[in-house]
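S1.2 Input.
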Amino acid sequence: MFHYSHSQKPCPFVRHTEIPSHRQSEPKYRKSLQALKLSAMSAEAQIPLTKPVVYLDRKSTVIPARPSQPQRCKLGPSDLQMLRCHYIQKGLIYHMPSADHDPQFVSAVQLLKNRLSEALVHFYPLAGRLITSSDGVLYIECNDAGADLIEASAPDVGIQEIMEAEVRPVVRRFFALDGAINLNGHFLPLLVVQVTKLRDGMVISFTINHAVVDGTSFWHFINSFAELCRGAPTVSQPPLHNRCFDIEGSRIVLNLPETLAIDKFCPPVMAEKIFHFSKETIKSLKDSANGKNSESGIIISSFQALSAHVWQAITRARGLGPHEPTTLRLSVNCRPRLNPPLPHTYFGNAHQLVSTTVTAGELLAFDGSSAAGLLHRIIWPHRDADIRGRLESFKAEPVVYKMDGSVRDNSVMLGSSSSFPMYDNDFGWGRPVGARSGWANKFDGKVSAYPAKETGGVDLEICLLPPFMAALDTDPQFLV
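S1.3 Output.
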């Protein structure tokens, strides 16, 4: 256990910048590069200035403790697909009864800076920037430009307010680079850590470029960072940086401008809520889903049973007509599905989207077993041949995902994973008491899965238009 100490020495690999205490009105994205930088760097982009306030106190640029070997890491198909989406924003909440004592908070922040510098030695792409070569190929320039660490304070906010099921707007203020898209990594940091002092605790949030990492790599980095903070001399699972999830010898050119932001997605007002499913509830859903499927030899997983349950519930909440289509999309980790499999430590994006579409009438006529069977039929076959075929297709005709609210396709998008080791992140003052995310990549129908604090449970963060959330929140079939 880390003991607060005033003897935490300043890290020599940190540059500090004081953030002005006066509040600025929200800057808007403009076409000029300088205006775009100012806008994307604002942690308050698109957030109404309502109380309680999060004050941004100081920003530090942290570079690796030892110089990296200058190199370029080429972005593969799964990386490139994410360029027009937002950064990943996830945060962990810690209970610290004496968080209001500045010297102790300062000591904790200094520890994070020191060990972040060491973590960047192993995860050196996160200290770089994106670069487009003269022939249009995108790379990570591993140039030790550094990651940012922001110190902030929210003296009027306590853990209880953050942990409420209905996600409050203030949660969004705990995350940096709100509104930035991954392509902005040409001039923005690829990693920003924000440490916010609460009335009775601390939030450590991470904003990482989604063209550089997927969820598996995101949590691999954070687990390793926490390990170093606890005093480990090095990381126990070194990342694999060879970017081999690609077609050998391919050179994919997208010709996207570095300053692309005019298509920034500004969603309408959404309702966000955390729904908890206990281990017993999930087992009940799984047993029910396997009742009919067991006769055909199909084994439905807990994830498939819960996902089908949520898809049906959101479709009911939307009040879709029986002939209206509804689509379920989810991200599949390809590492264990390849032959030979990619190591768990592969650092980068190694995921692909799979989907299935039916009419609302068909979906709601299904029992839980049949609905879960739809998911099984798109997930189970997605293995080596299909995965490599997708890579070849991208090489022939690249498609970059875009956050766009202009088309409503009645979809449900499942992201994150309840298997991610979020609660393993003890930085020296105990395990987190909760996890929350920022506003990045959120839209009507986005569902993010988190492990619950108790073993075997799952917390689902659901984002819907307010009328749909109101219907979901009173649906007895959903709230089993």
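S1.4 Remarks. The two ends are 39 Å apart (CA to CA).
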